[in-house]
Amino acid sequence: MNITDINGTVQLANGVQMPYFGLGVFKTKEGQEVIDSVTYALDAGYRHIDTAAIYGNEEGVGIAIEKNATARKDIFLTTKVWNADQGYDSTLKAFDTSLAKLKTDYLDLYLIHWPVKGKYKETWRALEKLYADGRVKAIGVSNFLQHHLEDLFQSANVIPMVDQLEFHPYLVQQPLLDFCRQNNVQYEAWSPLMQGKAFDVPLLKELAAKYNVSVAQLVLRWDLQKEVVTIPKSIKQDRVISNAQLFNFEISKEDVQKIDALDRGERVGPDPDNFDF
After folding, report:
1. 33: helix, strand or coil
2. Which end of the chain has fewer CB within 10 Å, C or N?
3. Distance separating alpha carbons of residues 98 and 135, to the nearest angstrom
4. pTM (whole model) above 0.85
5. How far is the C-alpha of 82 from the C-alpha of 53, rounded, in Å?
6. What structural domains does the chain harbor?
7. In the predicted model, what is the mean pLDDT of residues 248-269?
């Protein structure tokens, strides 16, 4: 990954350019809150917005994009099919619903949100159709561990281009990161700041002071140096702006390794092998 600026991209397996930095809107309220958050991001130069059907805020995301001066073609827009909608026909229907809410006629990336046992292969078949029909530029998965990916690979005609996973200093999952890299699956981080827990980690505070940056900026820069696409969430304009100020410093290899060493396999979200929703 060649890290340049907020407009920098990584090339997916099919040649699509995906911005390596963006805005996530998990738990951002539908209506003015999400409209403002997306607007702050686009106005600050972000070109990658990530939502999901289950977040309940696709309509607000769509309104913000429609009203913004940034052209739709310059925005990389992601949403995800929810578990209850998985299956072939129901996924195609869910995709249409998401497009209508987002006020767009195509997506840049569509993801299977969770690996629902017995359903995700049929869901993937629907994503392959949407991709073949040109309705989405790239397709991928979210929360798929190595064994889920290996299982999907057996029947897939198209290998997932992205796997969006919980990723932060307490959950590095280096073997999974390596597996994705070997198979040309772009790793993407959700909850990069550990839902705020990162701000209390002594080493991260120490290194942030060393580089004269915030803990958030340190961790997000570490994501990029690990070649992981990252989509931090914020509803505050100053935080949206500061989160993107990652391009005037570089973490040394030694310090990257120190952050890596914080890994303890600790999740702040559900375990992809044990979820019941």
Report:
1. helix
2. C
3. 12
4. yes
5. 6
6. 9-197+228-249 (3.20.20.100)
7. 98
**Among 227, 117, 242, 243, which residue's Cα sits nearest to residue 172?**
227
| 23, β-bridge pairs | 49
- Backbone φ and ψ for 184, nearest 5 degrees, come out as 60, 35
In whole angstroms, give the CA distance from residue 197 to residue 47.
Answer: 27
- Read off the pLDDT of residues 23-48 as tens digits, 9 standing for 90 and up: 999 999 999 999 999 999 999 999 99
Known binder of ligand: residue 148? Answer: no
Copy the structure tokens of residue 272: 């992809």
How distant, in Å, are the alpha carbons of 11, 28, 63, 85, 157 from that of 121?
Answer: 25, 30, 33, 13, 11
Residue 124 in contact with residue 152, Cβ under 8 Å? yes
Pair of tokens at residue 179? 């597996």
Q: How far apart are the C-alpha atoms of 141 and 161, rounded to whole Å?
A: 8
Distance from C-alpha of 216 to C-alpha of 232, rounded to nearest angstrom? 9
Residue in the block written with tokens 């359903």: 119
Torsion of CA 178, 213, 75, 41, to 10 degrees: 140
Question: Tens digit of pLDDT for each residue in 186-213?
Answer: 999 999 999 999 999 999 999 999 999 9
